[in-house]
From TrEMBL:
Purpose of the protein: Involved in the transmission of sensory signals from the chemoreceptors to the flagellar motors. CheA is autophosphorylated; it can transfer its phosphate group to either CheB or CheY.
Organism in which the protein naturally occurs: Sulfurimonas denitrificans (strain ATCC 33889 / DSM 1251) (Thiomicrospira denitrificans (strain ATCC 33889 / DSM 1251))
CDD domains referenced in this protein's UniProt entry, alphabetically: CheA_reg, HPT
Protein name: Chemotaxis protein CheA
SMART domains noted in UniProt: CheW, H-kinase_dim, HATPase_c, HPT
Length: 691
């Protein structure tokens, strides 16, 4: 990646972050339209976006955002409360901003649909406001004084210089960069922070300073779109040539004076000596305060950007390390060596491998919050189209999941939430009141860790699923046979058939019969599952059940007949030898055991997996209690072989029709073991048990 690409990637990432931050704030504005702080926050984000777009030559984006910023600027000074149509215009304008950004990012010519229509609405709103109040030029204000203070803090942080040993600089040069800035730099969309970020990609920032206009007005007269920084001095240690450094200021060179020179190292040595003497002359009390300040800085949180591809490479390497460590720990030749010191080193290796694996795993785990917040917009838009009053209630937003899964969950969640709004919630508030419910429909979106699974629930308090209507539609479409007997779960499962729909007409929301089928396919690609619970007149729960990670797990190695299997340890409650008198057979239902006061079903893995089906005795077997969010159950195995970390390897299409297996792993002995899918095993039990 060359310098231009790196700089462009920084810009694109920052724009995406700004858009993600603004989106939920606009939705909150619907609930609190008189919140001026919220409008100010949105304005500042749009203002920064405009500056970035102008700096990097994204003309279409800068043009539209400029008009949107003008509109927001007026409303920031307007004392009246926003009405729903005005908030709606903000939201639709923001949609265009997002679309234009995607066009610019992908290099697509032209403009998004409704671009000019929304732009005309903005101009119309601007004219109305300008005619009813003072002129736009008189009320323009970039941000609150606090925002300017914040930028000042950022500049001051850059001013703190790094002490370098000049003898170690080598062939690098120290450049002095001087910028003469005029007062309207902010109005043209430029920002001091951009210069620092770009220069950091070329070398090390040693020192910076700035000269402020002597005639700074009082707080009441302070104009936050006016720059009071007259000159900016930056000292950069770099091996880049002068042209590369001047390229950073390409976009402002025409309006501002930029000069570049190489620093005389003797002068810098004198500067360092002077500062060193000043530090030595400070009192002990001052030194104590400084030390306390440094200690405080040492615990401050910081972050860096890492390309996802590099993170994936690191994760793959950790997977290979786990396999190698497993080989070493289970190698018979090594285990046969009677050497305490060697055993200690092997234990240290195992412990260190687990720590490294855990740390790297945590790098890929991120909260589901951002994805959940995006769903608020989905529910809002569909509820407006269907003329339904609906509230989306979130919980468990901070629950963490593998980032590779988060990126693939948006579409399934959108389908399920649209389904809940369109099909789940009653058609009118009158219908809900007649059923003794609140006028406003409620949809609950939650996330939680349960055992070895990550579970997302979409629950509504609507009308529930009419299984008789589903069955009738299934018969009409040939999915079910007339006169045949079906359980409620079997009837509900027809909803996931390709092309199945209960809608009487096709709309832009539903009726095409592709929603739930696509949801199930997407979730199964993540080795997960979708379940449905519903009660007519009460509501429906769609439950997405996923593994916590797609890469490395702690596993309990077991033997069933002659096959090696891995059971995820997060699903294991305990293993034990059964007491035969506690085992009971219930005709037509199966085998059960009294486990610590609970009556739990027993699953014979040898029969389930088609191994030695003739084996019937429980003697000399080991039972493992499996924890599951739908209820615990017992699996029968022949032998426990130990616990180890394994790297999950996909079986591809081979495992599509074997729901009891979620993948494979290479054991330390070199053998291949299948990974048991505890969710798929649970599906073979026809009953629900409380955990």
């Amino acid at each position: 990646m060359n310098k231009h690409d790196r700089v462009m990637q920084i810009f694109l990432n920052e724009c995406k972050e700004i858009l993600e931050e603004i989106a939920p704030k606009l939705l909150n504005l619907e609930d609190t339209p008189n919140d001026k702080n919220l409008i100010n926050d949105i304005f500042r984000g749009i203002h920064t976006l405009k500056g970035n777009a102008n700096s990097f030559g994204f003309v279409k984006l800068g043009e539209f955002v400029h008009h949107f910023e003008d509109l927001l600027s007026i409303y920031r000074k307007d004392e009246s409360v926003l009405d729903s149509s005005e908030v709606d215009l903000f939201i639709r304008s923001f949609d265009i901003v997002g679309s234009v950004f995607e066009y610019e990012e992908d290099g697509v010519d032209g403009y998004p649909t409704n671009y000019y229509e929304i732009l005309e609405e903005i101009k119309k709103a601007l004219n109305i406001k300008e005619n009813s109040k003072e002129s736009f030029e008189e009320i323009v204000s970039a941000s609150s004084f606090a925002h300017v203070a914040q930028e000042s803090v950022i500049v001051k942080k850059m001013v703190e210089h790094t002490q370098y040993n000049l003898k170690d600089i080598g062939d690098k040069k120290i450049y002095e960069i001087k910028l003469e800035l005029d007062s309207d730099i902010y109005l043209r969309g430029y920002n001091h922070q951009i210069f620092f970020r770009l220069l950091e990609s070329l070398g090390t920032l040693l020192y910076s300073n700035y000269i402020i206009d002597e005639n700074i007005p009082t707080l009441e007269e302070f104009n936050t779109e006016h720059s009071y920084v007259k000159s900016l001095y930056i000292y950069l240690l770099s091996d880049s040539d002068e042209m590369d450094i001047l390229d950073v200021f390409e976009f402002i060179a025409q309006e501002h004076e930029v000069s570049l020179s190489v620093v005389d190292l003797k002068e810098l040595e004198t500067l360092q000596e002077k500062e060193s003497k000043e530090e030595e002359s400070q009192s002990q009390e001052t030194l104590y305060v400084q030390n306390g300040s440094k200690e405080h800085k040492s615990v401050a949180k910081s972050s860096i950007r890492v390309e996802s591809a590099k993170l994936d490479e690191l994760f793959d390497s950790i997977g290979e390390l786990v396999i190698a460590q497993s080989y070493i720990s289970q190698n018979e030749k090594i285990r046969s060596i009677n050497d305490n010191e060697l055993n200690q080193y092997l234990e240290m290796l195992s412990k260190s491998t687990r720590i490294i694996q855990s740390k790297v795993m945590s790098l890929r785990m991120i909260p589901i919050r951002d994805t959940f917040l995006k769903m608020k917009r989905v529910v809002r838009d569909v509820s407006v189209k269907t003329s339904k009053e609906i509230e989306l209630i979130l919980s468990g937003e901070d629950t963490e999941i593998d980032k590779t899964m988060v990126d693939k969950l948006s579409e399934p969640l959108i389908h399920l939430l649209r389904n809940s709004v369109d099909h789940g919630i009653e058609e009118s508030a009158h219908d809900r009141v007649a059923l003794g419910k609140e006028e406003c429909g409620n949809i609950y979106l939650s996330a939680a860790h349960k055992g070895s699974s990550f579970v997302i629930e979409i629950r509504d308090d609507g009308r529930g699923i009419d299984t008789q209507k589903i069955l009738q539609k299934a018969i009409e479409k040939g999915f079910a046979k007339e006169g045949a007997s079906y359980t409620q779960d079997e009837i509900i499962n027809f909803l996931f058939c390709a092309g199945f729909s209960t809608a009487n007409s096709i709309t832009d929301i539903s009726g095409r019969g592709v929603g739930l089928d696509a949801v199930r396919q997407s979730i199964e690609e993540l080795r997960g599952k979708v379940t449905v619970e519903s009660e007519l007149g009460v509501g429906t729960i769609f439950r997405i059940i996923l593994p916590l990670t797609l890469a490395i797990i702690d596993g309990l190695t077991i033997r069933v007949d002659n096959e090696m299997l891995i059971v995820p340890t997060l699903s294991v409650v305990e293993s034990f030898s059964p007491i035969i008198k506690d085992i009971h057979y219930v005709k037509g239902e199966g085998e059960f055991i009294n486990y610590r006061g609970e009556i739990l079903p027993i699953v014979r893995l040898n029969r389930l997996l088609g191994l030695n089906k003739s084996k019937t005795e429980f003697e000399n077997s080991t039972f493992i209690c499996i924890d599951h969010e739908r209820g615990r159950y017992i699996i029968q195995v022949d032998e426990l072989l130990g616990r180890q970390q394994v790297v999950i390897k996909s079986l591809g299409v081979l495992s599509n029709n074997v729901k009891e297996i979620s993948g494979a792993a290479i054991l330390g002995t070199g053998q291949i073991a299948l990974i048991l899918n505890t969710e798929g095993v649970r599906d073979h039990l026809d009953f629900e048990y409380s955990a």
